[in-house]
TrEMBL record:
Its main location: cytoplasm. Residues 26-48 are annotated as: Disordered. It comes from Promicromonospora thailandica. This is Protein-L-isoaspartate O-methyltransferase. Belongs to the methyltransferase superfamily. L-isoaspartyl/D-aspartyl protein methyltransferase family. PANTHER family: PROTEIN-L-ISOASPARTATE O-METHYLTRANSFERASE, PROTEIN-L-ISOASPARTATE(D-ASPARTATE) O-METHYLTRANSFERASE. One of its GO terms (molecular function) is protein-L-isoaspartate (D-aspartate) O-methyltransferase activity. It comes from the Bacteria.
Length: 196
């Protein structure tokens, strides 16, 4: 019998092959796309190392058809990976604070032809993108100094958020009774999450 973890692992591997990192890097960084390390994408931001992105996606457990928020979408690579995982019945929204990165990330995602995903510039003073009934999944690719209540409030019932807080990667789950549960999944380093 094949375990659920093995199936999810295969899905992440498939997504990584289908959505190559190289297409979401500045031309000068493309020769290094296959290296398992963060790469600069400009504006003081990086493309996270693939093994870290894969670990975050495994924790997130993105189901087909999910509504997903990608906070700090940068080049759009994580947004496109999430879109591959949700499939065409899903909805993926990447938000990025930096205007130039948001425009570049939006163009990168548009080129994938996954029309159920897009990147927008974050609204000033708003962390994430509040929506009625919350999001099924939230991926945060920048480190917060403390768990942001504003993002926790955006997790829908039965939803999950993966977020680095200081140097720990946390999984936050919204339980059926509305409470949240946090579990720590090891140490990582990310660029800081800027909260207005």
């Amino acid at each position: 019998m094949v375990s659920m973890a093995a199936v999810e692992h295969d899905d992440i591997d498939r997504a990584m092959r289908a959505v190559p990192r190289r297409e979401f890097l500045p031309r000068s960084q493309r020769p290094f796309a296959g290296q398992d390390r963060p790469l600069p994408i400009g504006r003081g931001q990086t493309s996270s190392q693939p093994s870290t992105v894969a670990a975050m996606l495994r924790l997130l457990r993105v189901p087909l058809g999910a509504r997903v928020l990608d906070v700090g979408s940068g080049s759009g690579w994580s947004t496109a990976l999430l879109a591959f995982l949700t499939g065409p019945h899903g909805h993926v929204l990447g938000v990025e604070r930096d205007e130039r990165l948001a425009a570049w990330g939006a163009a990168n995602v548009e080129r994938t032809s996954m029309t159920w995903a897009r990147v927008v510039q974050a609204e000033p003073g708003v962390l994430g993108m509040p929506r009625e009934n919350g999001w099924d999944r939230i991926l945060v690719s920048a480190s917060a100094p403390a768990l942001p209540r504003a993002l926790v409030a955006q997790i829908g019932y039965g939803g999950r958020m993966v977020i680095p807080v200081r140097t720990s990667l946390l999984l936050i789950e919204r339980l059926p009774d509305g409470r949240t549960r946090a579990t720590d999944h090891g140490g990582y380093r990310f660029v800081p999450l800027i909260q207005d």
